[in-house]
Amino acid sequence: MEEMSEKPTVTMSRRDLVNGLAAGSVVAFAGPSLSGCTTNEALGRQQLLLVSDAQLAQLAAQSWTQALRENRQSSDPALRRKVERVGDRIVVAADQRFPQHNLTQQNWEFVVFDDDTVNAWVMPGGKVGFHTGLLDIMENNDQIATVMGHEAGHVVGRHAAERYSQQMAAAGGLTLANVALAVGDVEQRNLIAGILGAGVTFGVILPYSRKHEYEADRLGADFMVDANYRANEAVRFWDTMTKRSGQRPAEFMSTHPSDQNRIAAMQSYISTQGYA
């Protein structure tokens, strides 16, 4: 895939940027190195990336602030510490495996929201939200590490940037520009949250593709093992999620599909890698 030529920098308000993205009239570029296809060594394939991680993180920061302001956090300090400890171990493991992604240099935050929906989500910049509804059905720290590793897999896989880029490229009539994000209020936070994959907290979900989910599962298993968690607990967790989805729709399942094919793929990968 040919790389596109570098374009002059265009400065616009954040509101105009979001409106343009929604209409498919703007694509953000971070320079020639991101203006086309690039190889992600963690995935072993090329990706169309038309926006930088830093730009997405800047957009995500506003939505994250809004999430903290509008949603009640758990008052259980032990639960918060547990999620933070697991999260820190997974991030360190992922960084050691792929140091070029500089994961430990990001300002990671792990927050437990007092919400009975079965859900967890990650935003660019290392902002991870766990709902108490999900933690309530987890049997051990290995299962927390399953989801934490999966979310870290999305970050290493740069799935938000790829999804964002694919949607913009498919919109048609694109204006290619190197956008410098101006400081300003984000009035359409639901739209931004949907683009960035914030999940059901904002009521707008643009799901990851099945390919992205399988990739995040595989990377998550690697990070679990590197962090000394049991990878076979990932299979048990997804089996539990599959059974729950047969009883009633789960919000977590709406963005992270779990079925027998997914479990089979996880079992096969764990066995192939000698993790069992």
Explain what you see:
The chain is of the alpha/beta class. It has one domain. The protein has eleven helices and eight strands. The strands form three sheets. It has a three-stranded parallel beta sheet. A three-stranded mixed beta sheet has the order 5-7-6. Strands 3-4 form a two-stranded antiparallel ribbon. A hairpin with a 4-residue loop joins β3 and β4. α3 crosses α5. The longest helix is centred in the first third of the chain and has 21 residues. The radius of gyration is 18 Å and the shape is globular. The N and C termini lie far apart (39 Å). The N terminus is likely disordered.
- The low-confidence runs, each spanning 5 or more residues with pLDDT under 50, are 1-35, 172-195, 197-207, 248-256
User: Strand order across the biggest sheet?
Assistant: 1-8-2
* Ends distance: 39 Å
Structural class: alpha/beta
Order of secondary-structure elements: EHEEEHHEEEHHHEHHHHH
Count of spatially separate domains: 1
Task: Let me know the number of strands.
Answer: 8
Task: Give the number of helices.
Answer: 11
User: Which range best describes the helical content: under 10%, 10-25%, 25-40%, 40-55%, 55-70% or over 70%?
Assistant: 40-55%
Biggest sheet, open or closed, and with what strands and sense?
A: 3 strands, parallel
Basic shape: globular
The radius of gyration computed from the alpha-carbon positions, rounded to a whole number of angstroms, is: 18 Å
Overall mean confidence score, pLDDT: 74
**Roughly what fraction of the amino acids lie in strands?**
5-15%
